[in-house]
Design brief:
Elements: H1 5-22, H2 28-32, H3 42-70, H4 76-82, H5 87-93, H6 115-135, E1 145-148, E2 154-157, H7 158-188
Length: 189
């Protein structure tokens, strides 16, 4: 891993946060529109992203703590140099329908969250991601790997987990774009 990738991850997460937040600016009927195929509405997709982030962030926090605990006994420079940030495999996660994965039930939207609360929650989650990067600014996040079953990624570093979180959101931004286009076609007929 190149330490230059750490600020790139930070910038990527900031960009994704802004792009996600912009979806709240749509009209209520656009956000509530359900696709003809029975898929989720835009607001449900945003809720799913927040639910998924919540669980990913628990693992990220634990991973950071374990990484920092290993710091005393590690040669950080060597560990960083020997670590590979597998961006290509992680980028696949950001492409809607690039692979099949059945999400756990606890990550399915319920519709029981106030939209303003949901917006604040997503914003806060991405702020926490930035704070997490601040906790491991020198490559410490390569010292611990966490299992990721999605797309058979295997064990990935804390940095890759943070990047994954953003790529997961990006995947659903593409999904929301499709829902929005369908809504626009349905209202022009």
């Amino acid at each position: 891993m190149d330490k230059a990738e750490i600020p790139e991850i930070r910038e990527f997460l900031e960009d994704v946060s802004i792009r996600l937040d912009n979806w709240f600016n749509l009209k209520s009927d656009q956000k509530a529109y359900k696709p003809e195929n029975g898929g989720w509405s835009i607001i449900e997709i945003l809720e799913h992203v927040a639910l998924t982030n919540q669980y990913l962030m628990i693992l990220i926090d634990k991973g950071i703590k374990k990484s920092l605990n290993k710091l005393e006994d590690a040669d950080l420079e060597e560990e960083v140099r020997d670590s590979n940030f597998d961006k290509d495999r992680l980028d696949e996660v950001g492409i809607h329908k690039s692979f099949t994965w059945i999400r756990p039930e606890h990550m399915e939207p319920t519709g029981n969250i106030d939209e303003l609360e949901l917006r604040r929650k997503l914003s806060g989650q991405f702020t926490t991601c930035q704070e997490n990067i601040d906790r491991i600014p020198n490559g410490e996040g390569v010292l611990h790997r966490i299992k990721m079953s999605v797309n058979d990624l295997g064990k990935i570093t804390v940095y890759e987990y943070l990047y994954f979180l953003g790529k997961h959101a990006e995947r659903h931004i593409q999904q929301m774009e499709k829902v929005k286009r369908e809504y626009e076609r349905s209202t022009t007929i």
